[in-house]
Amino acid sequence: MEYKIKNMDEQEFQRKYLNLKILKGIQTYLKSEGEEESVVYPIRVPQELLYQMVKLQGAESADKLVHHIFTIGLSIWSERLFQESFGAPENLKAFIQLMKERESKEK
Amino acid sequence: MEYKIKNMDEQEFQRKYLNLKILKGIQTYLKSEGEEESVVYPIRVPQELLYQMVKLQGAESADKLVHHIFTIGLSIWSERLFQESFGAPENLKAFIQLMKERESKEK
């Protein structure tokens, strides 16, 4: 894949820029085990799973498990987003360089 | 791995029995895309991800994405639970057979 970092159009730049922000937020979230950069959001979870876990191991363990399952999904999803947006660490570096150049031009 | 389905102790039987119930619930949940056998549960999600998605694609898309991420994790986690509890479809069949035998004895 040829990666046209310098020639990307504005729309593509903005898309990558937003994805990078999202990825950085996810990284912080995962490192802090959901303590940082997070908001509470209601989701639907499998009833039997939740009930059995609360019954067997208590509410705190059930909470941990639901978050554990969510972070498994999040790790995989964010890896895909990274691959789709940048493909390789070098492309990310090139993009960050481009961001810096744009920022210094704007000043 | 030798699978001692007939000789398992009561504790092991109960553990597998509960895991099977959980797995069945998850399967129904996944098939119905969270519509069936689900309860609403608050989780912490990455803030930037949620905000950007709501901004870019609206609240409904953000909701779908959060659920999509959760189901990725759930598919992987339940596959692991299945492997750990039964290992192979034949063992599951043998266990279901054992369940039926116990049920008919209890009647």
Account of the protein in words:
2 copies of one chain form a homodimer. The first copy, chain A, has 3 helices and 1 strand, in the order αβαα. In chain A, α1 crosses α2 (47-85). Chain A has one domain. The relative contact order of chain A is 0.14. The first copy, chain A, has 107 residues and is mainly α. At the A-B interface, α1, β1 and α2 of A face α1, β1 and α2 of B.
- Element-by-element helix/strand order of chain A: HEHH
Compute the number of strand runs of chain A: 1
Based on the structure, what is the oligomeric state of the protein chains?
A: homodimer
- Strand proportion of chain A: 5-15%
Distance between the termini of chain A: 33 Å
Poorly predicted parts of chain A: none
Estimate the helix proportion of chain A, in percent: over 70%
User: Judging from the principal axes of the Cα atoms, what is the shape of chain A?
Assistant: elongated
Topology:
The structure is a homodimer of 107-residue chains.
Chain A: H1 10-31, E1 38-46, H2 47-85, H3 89-106
